[in-house]
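Hey, I'm writing a tutorial for new members on how sequence and structure tokens pair up, and I'd like a real worked example in the thread rather than a made-up one. If someone can provide the structure for the chain below, I'll link this post from the tutorial.
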Amino acid sequence: MILQRWIGPTLLSAAAGHSSAILKKGSPFTHNLTHVCLFRSPSDRDGMAEEAKKLAGYAAVDNHVQNNQVVGVGSGSTIVYAVDRLAERVRQEKLNIVCVPTSFQARQLILQRGLTLSDLDRNPELDVAIDGADEVDAALTLIKGGGGCLTQEKIVAGCAKHFIVIADFRKDSSALGQQWKKGVPIEVIPMAYIPVSRAIAKRFGGEAVLRMAISKAGPVVTDNSNFLLDWKFEHTHNWKEVNTAIKMIPGVVETGLFVGMTERVYFGMEDGSVRIRDPPVN
């Protein structure tokens, strides 16, 4: 049996008992998706990925942002499309929206798009936070931090009533590590990066390497003035236990494992649809 239900302004069709659904252009009542352009060049994977990011970002903003809300704004390339759509809706619908950034990049996006900037001092409780991910597994466990903003991203997500993730089809995995090969980012106090790296490798295997900068000499430095390790693990773990154990190592600030935090993921797909995944029902 197919059930049709509304989430925000967009009609979804979902199979009963399943935790995912697909939005398609051309479905009944999809007037709010008129901005969507279907993919024209299947061979252009990069172009398809960019369009997929836009589809996911627009769908999340349309379905989860309402008037008089405080919105957490994530970081990375996909969030740019969500902020574009948010700014468009604020202008067109005269919405009263306050935005809390997760990074310097997010702060600049908010200001450049003419949105209202706030912080957790003034707005410690958010209605919704929207962010991207480097990889999403079947349980909606995330790897985040490819852009180095994991700590502030996790803080903002933890302050939100609803944490919504947007991604393109390349980020969808049944298990972490299938698609994302750069490891789990771990933010560390600079003086502790060698002891932390050794402790992780000894306990969990693999290798935790210091992330080096590309356009500067030396390591990447986060917005919090810390270093980043990228832990390249060798096999699947109990991510909840691993996340807790790594955070207990002296010198660790935060990990890029987001476990049990995500309410819904929007994947922009290669065929121009948006696939929605909710957490599995236990």
